[in-house]
Protein backbone atom coordinates (compact mmCIF):
# COMPACT_ATOMS: atom_id res chain seq x y z
CA UNK A 1 0.00 0.00 0.00
CA UNK A 2 1.05 3.54 -0.62
CA UNK A 3 1.50 5.06 2.90
CA UNK A 4 -0.51 8.27 2.23
CA UNK A 5 -3.24 6.22 0.52
CA UNK A 6 -5.87 7.03 3.17
CA UNK A 7 -5.03 10.73 3.32
CA UNK A 8 -6.83 11.76 0.13
CA UNK A 9 -9.94 9.57 0.52
CA UNK A 10 -10.47 9.33 4.26
CA UNK A 11 -10.84 5.75 5.44
CA UNK A 12 -10.40 4.07 2.07
CA UNK A 13 -7.09 2.57 3.20
CA UNK A 14 -8.93 0.71 5.96
CA UNK A 15 -11.50 -0.65 3.48
CA UNK A 16 -8.59 -1.86 1.32
CA UNK A 17 -6.81 -3.40 4.32
CA UNK A 18 -9.94 -5.17 5.60
CA UNK A 19 -10.57 -6.68 2.17
CA UNK A 20 -6.96 -7.90 2.03
CA UNK A 21 -7.33 -9.53 5.43
CA UNK A 22 -10.61 -11.12 4.40
CA UNK A 23 -8.99 -12.61 1.28
CA UNK A 24 -5.75 -13.71 2.95
CA UNK A 25 -5.16 -17.27 4.06
CA UNK A 26 -2.99 -16.33 7.01
CA UNK A 27 -1.41 -12.86 7.25
CA UNK A 28 -1.22 -9.44 5.64
CA UNK A 29 1.62 -6.92 5.86
CA UNK A 30 0.97 -3.21 5.43
CA UNK A 31 2.54 0.23 5.91
CA UNK A 32 0.70 2.93 7.85
CA UNK A 33 1.65 6.30 9.30
CA UNK A 34 2.85 5.84 12.88
CA UNK A 35 0.53 8.64 13.98
CA UNK A 36 -2.43 6.36 13.15
CA UNK A 37 -1.15 3.35 15.13
CA UNK A 38 -3.76 3.49 17.91
CA UNK A 39 -6.58 3.65 15.36
CA UNK A 40 -5.15 0.74 13.35
CA UNK A 41 -4.71 -1.44 16.46
CA UNK A 42 -8.29 -0.65 17.52
CA UNK A 43 -9.64 -1.65 14.09
CA UNK A 44 -7.62 -4.90 14.12
CA UNK A 45 -9.15 -5.78 17.47
CA UNK A 46 -12.65 -5.00 16.14
CA UNK A 47 -11.97 -7.26 13.15
CA UNK A 48 -10.75 -10.11 15.35
CA UNK A 49 -7.22 -10.16 13.96
CA UNK A 50 -3.89 -9.88 15.73
CA UNK A 51 -1.73 -6.91 14.79
CA UNK A 52 1.98 -6.60 15.44
CA UNK A 53 4.30 -3.66 14.76
CA UNK A 54 7.12 -5.47 12.94
CA UNK A 55 9.23 -2.32 12.44
CA UNK A 56 9.14 1.44 12.79
CA UNK A 57 10.52 3.03 9.63
CA UNK A 58 11.13 6.38 7.96
CA UNK A 59 9.55 6.60 4.51
CA UNK A 60 11.00 9.23 2.21
CA UNK A 61 8.32 10.64 -0.09
CA UNK A 62 9.87 12.61 -2.97
CA UNK A 63 8.02 15.49 -4.56
CA UNK A 64 6.05 14.00 -7.44
CA UNK A 65 3.07 16.35 -7.85
CA UNK A 66 2.79 20.10 -8.33
CA UNK A 67 0.83 20.45 -5.09
CA UNK A 68 3.73 19.00 -3.07
CA UNK A 69 5.38 21.93 -1.33
CA UNK A 70 8.67 20.24 -0.31
CA UNK A 71 11.26 18.41 -2.43
CA UNK A 72 10.93 15.41 -0.11
CA UNK A 73 9.25 14.54 3.13
CA UNK A 74 10.30 12.00 5.72
CA UNK A 75 7.27 10.19 7.16
CA UNK A 76 7.29 7.95 10.24
CA UNK A 77 5.57 4.69 9.29
CA UNK A 78 4.83 1.36 10.94
CA UNK A 79 5.34 -1.90 9.10
CA UNK A 80 2.45 -3.97 10.44
CA UNK A 81 1.60 -7.66 10.34
CA UNK A 82 -2.05 -8.65 10.61
CA UNK A 83 -2.70 -12.30 11.41
CA UNK A 84 -6.03 -14.07 11.38
CA UNK A 85 -6.79 -15.87 14.61
CA UNK A 86 -7.40 -19.60 14.14
CA UNK A 87 -11.09 -20.48 13.98
CA UNK A 88 -12.52 -22.55 16.78
CA UNK A 89 -14.10 -25.77 15.57
Question: How would you sum up this structure, described in words?
Answer:
30% of the residues lie in helices and 38% in strands. The mean pLDDT is 86. It contains 3 helices and 3 strands, in the order H-H-E-H-E-E. The chain starts with a helix and ends in a 5-residue tail after the last strand. It is an alpha+beta fold.
Strand content: 35-45%
The number of helical runs is 3
Count all strands and give the number.
3
Q: Give the helices and strands as they follow along the chain.
A: HHEHEE
Largest sheet: 3 strands, antiparallel
- Please state the structural category: alpha+beta
Mean pLDDT: 86
Could you name the ranges where pLDDT drops below 50 across 5 or more consecutive residues? none
Gross morphology: elongated
Neighbour order of strands in the largest sheet: 1-3-2
Report the end-to-end length measured between terminal Cα atoms: 33 Å
* Subunit organisation of the chains: single chain
Helix content: 25-40%
Radius of gyration: 14 Å
Annotation keywords:
single chain, 89 residues, three-stranded antiparallel beta sheet, elongated
Amino acid sequence: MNPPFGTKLKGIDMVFLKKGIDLANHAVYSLHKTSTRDHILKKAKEWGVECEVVAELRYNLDKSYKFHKKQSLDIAVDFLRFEKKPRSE
